[in-house]
């Protein structure tokens, strides 16, 4: 079984006031374990003072693993849309 490298863009929930991108980044970093090797978490500017979180993660190429990670991320308070920016086999 191979490994997959993925880059995600995590946007804050537009319906929630005072979403803290740094808190989202810390919560995402805490998801790193034996299955999901979260290699970097960056808070980047979006527009008009808004920020988004970009993460780079390496995981096994197993069925449903990416969907499971996205589900874990979506459970974090303040997370809105999750977008896959890139995906590739290692």
Descriptive report:
With 90 residues, the protein is α+β, with helices and mostly antiparallel strands. The protein has a single domain, classed as Alpha-Beta Plaits (2-Layer Sandwich), CATH 3.30.70. 21% of the residues lie in helices and 49% in strands. Strands 2-3-1-4 form a 4-stranded antiparallel beta sheet, with helices on one face. The mean pLDDT is 94.
Which properties best describe this structure?
4-stranded antiparallel beta sheet; elongated; 90 residues; alpha+beta; 2 helices; Alpha-Beta Plaits
Element-by-element helix/strand order:
EHEEHE
Fourth-tier CATH superfamily name = Ribosomal protein S6/Translation elongation factor EF1B
Rounded mean pLDDT score: 94
CATH architecture, please? 2-Layer Sandwich
The poorly predicted ranges are none
Strand order of the largest sheet: 2-3-1-4
Decide which structural class fits the backbone: alpha+beta
Tell me the overall shape.
elongated
CATH topology name: Alpha-Beta Plaits
Number of domains: 1
Strand content: over 45%
Counted by DSSP, the helix tally is 2
- Quaternary state, please? single chain
Largest sheet: 4 strands, antiparallel
CATH class: Alpha Beta
Number of strands: 4
Fraction of residues in helix: 10-25%
What Rg is obtained from the alpha carbons, in whole angstroms?
13 Å
Our measurement of the CA-to-CA distance between the termini, rounded to an integer number of angstroms, reads: 11 Å
């Amino acid at each position: 079984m191979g490994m997959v490298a993925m880059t995600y863009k995590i946007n804050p929930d537009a319906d929630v006031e005072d979403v803290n991108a740094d808190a989202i980044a810390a919560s995402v970093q805490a998801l790193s374990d034996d299955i999901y090797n979260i290699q970097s978490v960056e808070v980047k500017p979006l527009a008009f003072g808004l920020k988004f979180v970009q993460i780079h993660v390496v995981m096994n190429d197993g069925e449903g693993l990416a969907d499971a990670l996205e589900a874990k991320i979506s459970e974090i308070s303040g997370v809105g849309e999750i977008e896959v920016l890139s995906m590739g086999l290692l």
